[in-house]
Amino acid sequence: MRFVPSDKYTIAWFKIAECVARGERERALGVYRLLIHSFDDPALAQQLEGDIILAFDEPLKAVERYKEAAFLYQKSGRLLEAAAVTEHLITLSAQKQEYLVQAAQLYKDLNIPQKAIGHLHALIALSLGKNDTAQAVQALEQLATLAAQADLVGLRQQVIHAMIADKFPLESLIPQVQGLIDGLIECNNERLLQQFLAYAEGHSQELHAIAINYLAQKA
Fold first, then answer.
1. What stretches of the chain show up as alpha helix (H) in DSSP?
2. Residues of 58-73 as b/e, b for ≥16 C-beta within 10 angstroms?
3. pLDDT digit string (tens) for 135-172?
4. Domain extents in the chain
5. Pick from 141, 109, 106, 113: nearest CA to 127
6. Which residues contact 168 (CB under 8 A, 6 or more apart)?
7. Over the stretch 35-82, which tens digit does the pLDDT of each residue have?
8. Among 1.10.10.60, 1.10.10.350, 1.25.40.10, 3.50.30.10, what is the CATH number of 1-93?
9. Largest CB tally within 10 Å, which of 46, 90, 167, 199?
10. What is the pTM of this model?
């Protein structure tokens, strides 16, 4: 796992490791069932079982244990442990978007903004790659609460292009256009601003008018 394990976790895993090394799956799980009675920690028990199952190359079954472990860690207020298990789920599961959302929120709650920002960036890239523009928009708005508008210019452009390609309603484009203009003003990038205005005009007069009117308000 991606965090320093507790002593009881280390001891439990050490006792099971010999069985794992010998490829004795059922014996390893049998030892695990005996050991979990020595510590009253359902979240840790689920995590440990997931580790054993994963060691025997059964990632789908391990994912189910890790999901439960992350839920129980979060329920008990151990957000760092929940985040670490969720990171593991990101690497194992095909449903990476779900766990990127979860990890970003956990790191936000933990007041570790750079980790939250990193996961939201990954979520936006993955969502755009899967043509899930709605998820990308939602993640971008979360990201905007953590990062400066000037840092989001490139992502805003990608999301706006995707929204237009997917024929999102004009009104849903307004906050994205305004956010992009704010970012371009913050970074004093007149060239990109003019490029965007030309792009908006090429798409529709209505979108161009929205951009021009917002610029006038900012003047």
1. 7-21, 25-35, 42-55, 59-75, 79-92, 96-109, 113-129, 133-143, 153-165, 170-186, 190-203, 205-218
2. eeeebbebbbbbbbbb
3. 999 999 999 999 999 999 999 999 999 999 999 999 99
4. 1-93, 95-146, 148-219
5. 141
6. 133
7. 777 777 899 889 988 988 998 888 999 999 999 999 999 999 999 999
8. 1.25.40.10
9. 46
10. 0.85
Calpha distance 165→133 (Å, rounded): 10
Name the one residue in this structure whose structure tokens are 């999301």.
159
Gap between the Cα atoms of 153 and 79, Å rounded:
31
Residue labelled with tokens 């695990």:
32
Residue 28 and residue 58 in contact, taking contact as beta carbons nearer than 8 Å: no
CB 194 within 8 A of CB 180: no
**Cα–Cα dist 124/134, whole Å:** 10
CA–CA separation, 219 and 217 (whole Å): 6
